[in-house]
Amino acid sequence: MTISTAISANELTSVRQQELLNMLKHDCGSCHGLPPKGGLGPSLMPEALAGKSDALLADAIQNGRAGTAMPPWKSFLTIDETAWLIQQLRTR
Ligand code: HEC
Predict the structure, then answer these.
(1) What are the tens digits of pLDDT across the range 9-50?
(2) Domain residues of the chain, as ranges?
(3) Which of these, 7, 31, 46, 72, has the minimum number of CB atoms within 10 Å of its CB?
């Protein structure tokens, strides 16, 4: 198995984790607030996400929501990175 296929959400480098947290603050925060209690976009606080599945949230992040301001992030975030971000949002 090559290194790249072994990468998982738990194995992101600390540098990349920091980049993702910055992205959450600056990019996501501009619409979802900081902390992300909601603004133009809905709240991404743990209470707000509790009833929503990882699949639903990952789909919104990867593909955006057509017809809304939520843009697709899949050219910036891998599936593993998206999963890691969701985990961060749920455990804040
Ligand atoms: C330009 C504004 C904007 C930016 C930037 C943005 N969002 Fe959104 N986001 C929205 C809007 C508006 C919605 C609600 C879409 C809808 O009505 O379904 C949304 C929905 C979502 C949802 C689905 C929430 C739910 O309850 O179904 C998630 C998860 C999400 N955004 C995460 C993110 C993340 C993570 C980022 C940064 C990588 C981000 N968003 C950046 C505007 C934005």
Answers:
(1) 557 999 999 999 999 999 999 999 999 999 999 999 999 999
(2) 13-90
(3) 46
CB of 45 sitting under 6 A from ligand 1: no
Of 20, 16, 30, which Cα lies nearest the Cα of 70? 30
Residue in 53, 63, 70, 77 to alter for ligand 1 test, most ligand atoms within 8 A of Cβ:
70
Query: Is there an atom of ligand 1 within 6 Å of 8 CB?
Result: no
Which H/E stretch holds residue 86?
A: helix 79-90
What is the reported pTM?
Answer: 0.92
Right CATH number for 13-90 from 3.30.360.10, 1.10.357.10, 1.10.760.10, 1.10.10.10?
Answer: 1.10.760.10
